[in-house]
Design brief:
This protein is α+β, with helices and mostly antiparallel strands and 642 residues long. Helix content is 41%, strand content 23%. The longest helix is centred in the middle third of the chain and has 62 residues. It has four domains: 118 residues, Beta-Lactamase (2-Layer Sandwich), CATH 3.30.450; 101 residues, Beta-Lactamase, CATH 3.30.450; 156 residues, GAF domain (Beta-Lactamase); 148 residues, Heat Shock Protein 90, CATH 3.30.565.10. The strands form five sheets. Strands 6-5-9-8-7 form a five-stranded antiparallel β-sheet.
């Protein structure tokens, strides 16, 4: 091997902390990492014997004799290396390594290190035993190191590349390409960490490349080293984790979308679209088992990836073996290729896919099962290419199907509640109208009886009857108002009036019906408002009447009104039974009744109507209450209500 190549090949040994020299078969030194060792040779030439004399003066005669015997004989390089490695004395002085067919590398201990049992591990072994691919080249681009892992990674023997330019090798291995070595060195010098890292893909493997400068003892740059670490497992694990996180986020988004939608057709379409996209299917369908108003079974379906008119021409799925597993099973099903299924082509009248059918090879079905175990329907997916679906798809689709089942059950419950509510509203409206006519007649006859009667005692009873008839009339009006409010038909007939006068008149009406309490009126002066006078009086009557009704052990109720900015504020304060904190949030719900030990009658529509009327005026109705101490109801409406 030419001397210049030998120097290039072993240039990196300059960094070793122990003495290394490379000789030919007769001991002449061709390379040494410590030039000062053996220079003053007695024999006039630089050879391994001079080095031993410099390093091991006291032991020199014995070592020299043994070494000369081995090297000066007719032994080949291989035989000489083998004898040197076996000699008990010599192997404690140095270790040797054969390079190519003509060189011996000596790794020496200094005299101070002779007492140590372990020789320093020479550089070649260290580099080759590492789990990373290592490539080193000089500042002029000549490759000086290409270890075993690099050979495995790139499929090229290091012995074929040593001495070649890195730019030449990069033509066959593009991942090694740089503009030029100099520009790479400049980049490394400019890097704060003095190291540049990047990640690439080589075939199916992900590799992290770390490039670093190599310095000599004077801290001058002499080359570049590159380490190639196989990070395939780390990258694939990270990708799987990222995919798992994305799947969870996707499922969460789907659940939010489903939970905000209670329309069956919308739910079916959302689920069909997202599952078709997520599974990678070309087409998807959701067949949902439903009942008509007459209780007959029917199948609703939604599609994704195909036109509805194309699907309608095919009719409903037939009772083949594949579709039995689709609609009767509670497990997911995959056919990697339906044309190779044992049942394919054996069912009349089509004996295979019907004419005009969407091209399907891959097939997957996912049952949608309720929490009670009822099969609510099935999701079907198809793709024109075989082998498109996996067990991972089944797991994800089953998660979405479970969410869809909950959403469909909620929708069904809401539909049932709505149906019952509609029937109830119809019943209330019919009963209200049926009661109003006889009550009007009864009231008319009692009023006539009151006018012709001269008996004072009888007049008292007649007044009581009239009070109860009026109470029934108010109840019927409230029931009919509920129907109007729910239908959104309630309207306001606004006019300008004095709210203070209306409060006084309402207090008198309540006292006429209930004279057990003193109702105090704190009036901050006449207040003119624009509102529906009849509806505001309805609110006032309900709130003041309730204040009396729900404070059976008290004897006072306080009504306050005041003007603040552009609105009027009305407070009705009682000192009665109060409302607990757990019930106060539901107090304005329709038909909600607060449990009470006093067994006070009522059906829970008064406060509901009050809140709706005040809201219709653009105002607010609220309550502050302490159990067993009393309640304060406050409503606010704009003074100039448009």
């Amino acid at each position: 091997m030419p001397l210049n190549l030998i120097k290039k090949k072993f240039e990196l040994y300059d960094l070793a902390p122990f003495y290394i020299c490379v000789t030919n078969s007769i001991g002449e030194i061709l390379y040494s990492n410590k030039k000062e060792v053996g220079i003053n040779s007695q024999e006039g030439s630089l050879n391994v014997y001079n080095c031993i004399q410099s390093l091991f003066r006291e032991s020199y005669p014995l070592i020299n004799k043994k070494l000369r015997t081995i090297l000066n004989s007719q032994n080949t390089i291989s035989e000489a290396v083998e004898l040197l490695e076996k000699d008990t004395l010599l192997k404690n002085i140095f270790s040797v390594k054969q390079v190519d067919e003509e060189l011996i590398v000596f790794f020496f201990k200094t005299q101070e290190e002779e007492s140590q049992n372990n020789l320093p591990v020479f550089l070649d072994s260290l580099v080759n035993e590492t789990a990373e691919g290592v490539i080193c080249y000089t500042i002029t681009g000549e490759i000086v190191v290409w270890n075993l892992e690099a050979e495995k990674l790139f499929g090229i023997k290091g012995s074929e590349l040593i001495g070649k330019k890195i730019t030449e090798v990069a033509l066959d291995i593009p991942v090694l390409s740089e503009d030029n070595v100099l520009s790479e060195i400049i980049k490394l010098k400019q890097s704060e960490a003095a190291i540049i890292e990047k990640e690439i893909k080589i075939g199916e493997r992900y590799v992290k490349i770390s490039a670093k400068l190599i310095h000599d003892k004077a801290n001058e740059v002499i080359g570049v080293s590159k380490c190639f670490s196989d990070v395939t497992r780390y990258v694939t694990d990270s990708q799987l984790l990222q995919k798992h996180v994305e799947n969870l986020q996707y499922l969460n988004d789907i659940w939010e979308s489903l939970s905000q939608n209670l329309d069956v057709q919308n739910i079916l379409q959302i689920v069909t679209d997202v599952t078709t996209k997520f599974s990678g299917a070309a087409y998807g369908a959701f067949f949902y088992n439903s009942l008509t108003e007459d209780g007959e079974a029917m199948k609703l379906f939604t599609l994704s990836g195909a036109r509805r008119e194309d699907f309608m021409k095919l009719g409903m799925p037939r009772n083949t073996d594949i579709f039995k597993k689709t609609f009767n099973s509670k497990e997911g099903f995959i056919a990697n290729d339906v044309t190779k299924h044992y049942d394919f082509g054996k069912n009349s009248p089509h004996n295979g896919l019907p004419k005009g059918h969407l091209p399907v090879r891959s097939y997957m079905s996912i049952p949608v099962v309720s929490m009670t175990g009822e099969n609510m329907g099935s999701l079907l997916f198809g793709h024109p290419e075989p082998g498109k679906f996996s067990q991972e798809h089944i797991k994800m689709m089953q998660s979405i199907a479970s969410q869809a089942a909950v959403a469909l059950e909620n929708s069904k419950l809401l539909e049932n509640v709505k149906t019952l509510s509609d029937k109830k509203d119809l019943f209330i409206t019919v009963v209200g109208h049926e009661l109003r006519s006889p009550l009007t007649t009864i009231k008319g006859f009692i009023q006539v009886l009151s006018e012709v009667n001269q008996d004072n005692d009888l007049c008292i009873y007649i007044e009581k009857v009239l009070e109860q008839v009026e109470a029934l009339n108010l109840l019927v009006s409230d029931l009919l108002d509920i129907g109007q409010i729910e239908a959104g038909k309630i309207s306001l007939e606004k006019s300008e009036f004095c709210l203070s006068d209306l409060v006084k008149n309402t207090i008198e009406t309540v006292l006429y019906a209930q004279n057990t309490h003193e109702i105090l009126f704190d009036n901050k002066g006449p207040m003119i408002v624009t509102a529906d006078k009849r509806r505001i009086q309805q609110v006032l009557y309900n709130l003041i009447y309730n204040a009396v009704k729900y404070s059976p052990d008290a004897d006072k109720v306080l009504v306050q009104i005041k003007s603040e900015k552009d609105e009027v504020i009305v407070k009705i304060i009682d000192y009665g039974i109060g409302i607990s904190e757990k019930h106060i949030h539901n107090i304005f719900d329709r038909f909600y009744r607060v449990p009470s030990k006093k067994n006070i009658s009522g059906i829970g529509i008064g406060l509901f109507l009050c809140s709706k009327i005040i809201k219709k005026h653009g105002g607010t109705l609220s309550v502050n209450s302490v159990l067993d101490e009393g309640s304060e109801f406050i409503f606010k409406i704009p003074q100039k209500n448009v």
